[in-house]
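Anyone up for a design puzzle?
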């Protein structure tokens, strides 16, 4: 017997909810019930308990995602499970598992080599601290970069210290002396050996990364591959990714050609030549490059975080490699898997159109200000009216808080957030920090426990030990 689900909603969303459910071709029975409110965002657990007098014989009740309050208490009251749905209707099909299960992002196959470029200039303790930071961000191998004509007297000590802390270590140099020393000190990988320095592989146990001389010479690369295969030793090939306008397109072709000629060799891509040497945000570049790696079965990348704009490159690569593997294994696009890399924009920036915001304003009965955004601008409203503008300064004269410093400061913070979100096309929710995905400050959780009413705003937080603080000015109306 099919499950029967009761969907609770508001008047404005009823038609869209019915249409969305019908388009899903659901394998369950359903009833849609309007709870006597215009806007679904106004529904609270207390209101449901008071107003829902018939559960229509359903097996489960689904309430709007923005519904606040204790749903466990509701479940006990009605004797059937009461659950939150997604915050936005367009997410309903995904909520019901049209992909059947959320992609598993615990797995990855691509290994991240994270280079400490300035290693010769910092001491061993600083190298260890940097390595721990990179490992937290997702690095699998710590690469010590050797600079041309720059002494690195503590190279061996750095390798041994890293190994003692459980790190895999690679050393990046074109100087045979550095590579030989590194191999003897216990480095796991050596970047990079060519036809002239391949003899080092006979002296140490380290896995070499092979390059051509010159680096675009495919015949040279073929020869070093053949020699290592004859030795029966593991190795990695780096066809070298060149910067834009300095051979980038040809280098992409070169990667494809190496994979065509050598279907089973391990390949590395030094993505830093794009992320470091192109002044754009790195998440998109990393996604494109790791998508190429996924298609060509390139299972190693060398990532760097030298330039300020590339300061999250390793963390980005860690999430992207998981997304790409999940997408490839499920034969789907790398879309709707994880939003952690959508820092500037979001899937649905403006959840409520202006008409619904206007309708919501008519239901307000108290003087507390609510702030929302839409394609038309920033909207601030209470029982006395609704004001819209793209410039927060134009809204201030309508607020009447000239003599209330705390309230004015609070509204200023919220309107600034709203302006940023409206201009960028991000989601804005009052009293919540903007969501910058993995680029947000670590430890800052912008989510709010839906079992509680939203805590007081940025400048009005009360010092309370209760896990569910009292409603804020922006949420008083929800419990009405």
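Challenge accepted. My sequence:
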């Amino acid at each position: 017997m099919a499950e029967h689900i009761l969907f609770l909603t508001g008047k404005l969303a009823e038609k869209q909810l019915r249409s969305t459910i019908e388009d899903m071709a659901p394998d369950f029975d359903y009833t849609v019930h309007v709870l006597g409110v215009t806007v679904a965002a106004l529904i609270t657990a207390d209101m449901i308990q008071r107003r829902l007098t018939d559960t229509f014989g359903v097996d489960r009740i689904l309430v709007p995602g923005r519904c606040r309050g204790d749903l466990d208490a509701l479940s006990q009251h009605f004797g059937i499970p009461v659950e939150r749905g997604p915050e936005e209707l367009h997410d309903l099909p995904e909520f019901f598992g049209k992909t059947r299960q959320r992609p598993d992002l615990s797995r990855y196959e691509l290994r991240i080599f994270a280079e400490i470029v300035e290693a010769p200039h910092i001491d061993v303790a600083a190298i260890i601290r940097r390595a721990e930071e990179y490992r937290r961000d997702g690095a699998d191998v710590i690469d010590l970069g050797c600079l041309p004509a720059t002494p690195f007297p503590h190279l061996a000590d750095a390798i041994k210290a890293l190994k003692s802390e459980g790190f895999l270590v690679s050393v990046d140099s074109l100087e045979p002396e550095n590579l030989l020393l590194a191999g003897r000190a216990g480095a796991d990988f050596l970047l990079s050996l060519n036809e002239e320095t391949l003899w080092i592989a006979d002296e140490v146990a380290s896995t070499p990364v092979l390059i051509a001389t010159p680096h675009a010479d495919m015949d040279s690369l073929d020869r070093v591959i053949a020699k290592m295969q004859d030795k029966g030793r593991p190795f990695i090939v780096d066809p070298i990714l060149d910067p834009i306008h300095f051979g980038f397109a040809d280098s992409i072709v070169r990667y494809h050609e190496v994979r065509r000629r050598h279907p089973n060799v391990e390949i590395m891509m030094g993505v830093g030549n794009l992320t470091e040497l192109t002044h754009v945000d790195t998440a998109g570049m990393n996604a494109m490059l790791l998508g190429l790696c996924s298609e060509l079965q390139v299972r190693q990348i060398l990532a760097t975080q030298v330039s300020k704009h590339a300061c999250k490159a390793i963390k980005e690569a860690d999430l992207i490699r998981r997304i790409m593997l999940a997408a490839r294994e499920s034969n789907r696009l790398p879309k709707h898997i994880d939003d952690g890399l959508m820092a500037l924009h979001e899937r649905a920036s403006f959840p409520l159109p202006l008409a619904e915001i206007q309708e919501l304003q008519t239901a307000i009965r108290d003087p507390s200000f609510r702030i929302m955004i839409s394609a038309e601008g920033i909207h601030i409203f209470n029982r006395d009216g609704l004001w819209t503008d793209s410039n927060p300064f134009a809204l201030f004269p309508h607020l009447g808080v000239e003599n209330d410093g705390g309230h004015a400061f609070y509204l200023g913070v919220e309107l600034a957030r709203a302006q940023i979100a409206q201009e960028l096309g991000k989601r804005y929710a009052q009293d919540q920090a903007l969501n910058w995905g993995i680029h947000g400050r670590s430890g800052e959780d912008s989510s709010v426990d839906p079992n509680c009413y939203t805590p007081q705003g940025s400048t009005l937080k009360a010092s309370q030990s209760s896990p569910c603080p009292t409603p804020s000015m922006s949420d008083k109306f929800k419990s009405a």
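A detail worth pointing out: Residues 405-424 form the longest helix (20 residues).
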